[in-house]
């Protein structure tokens, strides 16, 4: 038996990185998963690889309310009429000095990261209630709890997601819906390491530079792996966390614990 047997879960940003690993793990644990993303070719390939009996892909721009409505309808049609889980994983990151950040860039990050999470809750929570209860997992960040230079727009949205998570947990608890947030530190995904997007892969030099950076700043001495974040998402979606709601969960290799002089 899997930890998610009988569950139907919508996962956004599921074409690669954390979202892909969440979709694969959830399916392996018995869930049927709707993968949403704007990377159509990649998302469809992941869903096909997981298997048609366990996964479907749908184009989902999380900043568009009509896309959410279509995604929910697709999930219900494909998997028997109900949805009882959501992982708001989709997000974008832009590096810029705060005072040099164009308004359009700031608003773009807000639309995807913050508005996307809001619309996901708005669209899926009524379905979860109708199914008798379930879970919502929002993806915040280490930067939602502490500062980091040159990611002002991103950090602002991730802090907002924590507030949204707490309010949703309070409002939805009576409907048997638990809402929690993950706060990853550095994770080895294309968003955090654009070199992964190169068809040839990141160069040995860029890999070495990244490894040295995280060796210095992360107590555990390395960057996180997407599958490690997926396991936290599984915990928060399964009955293992049945008495937990409204909480942020930091998963950062000890980065936020403090500064080491060694």
From TrEMBL:
One Pfam family cited in the UniProt record for this chain: adh_short_C2
Alphabetical keyword list: Oxidoreductase
Database matches in Gene3D superfamilies: NAD(P)-binding Rossmann-like Domain (3.40.50.720)
EC number: 1.1.1.47
Gene Ontology molecular-function annotations: glucose 1-dehydrogenase [NAD(P)+] activity
SUPFAM superfamilies cross-referenced by the UniProt entry: NAD(P)-binding Rossmann-fold domains
InterPro entries, per the entry: NAD(P)-bd_dom_sf (IPR036291), Sc_DH/Rdtase_CS (IPR020904), SDR_fam (IPR002347)
Top-rank EC class of the record's enzyme: oxidoreductase
Family statement: Belongs to the short-chain dehydrogenases/reductases (SDR) family.
Protein name: Glucose 1-dehydrogenase
Species for this entry: Streptomyces goshikiensis
